[in-house]
Every structure is written in C-alpha cells, then in structure tokens.
Amino acid sequence: MLMRTDPFREFDRLTQQFFGTHGTTTRPAAMPMDAYRDGDDYVVRFDLPGVSAESIDLDVERNVLTVRAERQAEFGDDVEVSVSERPRGVFSRQLFLGDTLDTDRIEAAYDSGVLTLRIPITERAKPRKIAIGSRDEAKQINA
C-alpha cells in the first residue's frame, strides 16, 4: 500500500556513518517514519522534533505525498556555538501511495514533535465476503 520513493536514503545514511559527515552534508537528514495499518486507515508518523507546525507543508499530487518541514537555528549570528549536532534546514520526504488509499480524505495532526497522517483505505480495497451460489441457481438466473 505504501512505498518509500527515496532509494538513496540508506546509502546516504551509511556514507554519513562511515565518513563521519553527519550534520555537515548539504543533503538534509531524512525524517524518521513509521507506517502501519490500523483498521480501515493507514497511519504514517514522522518524527519532527523542534519543528513548528507552521513550517510543515503537505502536498498530494496524483498518488505522491510530499512532506516538507523546516527547522531553523535557535541561536543568533552573534552567538559562539560550541556544539551543533542537531540538523537544521529543510527536510523533505516523498511517499508513493497505492491506489487503495483515499488521498482526498487524509487527516493530519501534529503533537509533541510527531506528525501523524491517517489515510483511509478505499471501500473497494476493503475485504468483503463473496456469496457462492450453486449450479442450479446459475441455471435459473440464465433462463
């Protein structure tokens, strides 16, 4: 139902670990994500600590969901920084949503640094029972 569309994310993470470039790369760090089915909804949760709700932007075009957020520096230009390990800048993540998800009814909530999206599963994708008739019933219908 849901696929990540950033095939280079894991490669970037491994490169950053190996070369110790975490935080100094020009590519922003990815948003950690959980995705799971909960009843008739698909739930996607993104960790965005320190990001204001106003800086989060959600877009759906066709079946591609784009999440963008920005974390700005909390200190001014005249401050001498001793350690700066928290990533800042613009974060972006794109997800391919399957045809079984209703992109017109996505609900979004942001609480305690976690963005939660609830995406309903379309009616046609929900499991349903199919009645099995007998051969005699089929003959009566066709007669």
From TrEMBL:
Domain SHSP: from-to ranges: 24-135
InterPro entries the UniProt entry points to: A-crystallin/Hsp20_dom (IPR002068), HSP20-like_chaperone (IPR008978), Small_HSP (IPR031107)
Family in the record: Belongs to the small heat shock protein (HSP20) family.
Descriptive protein name: Heat-shock protein Hsp20
Originating organism: Amycolatopsis albispora
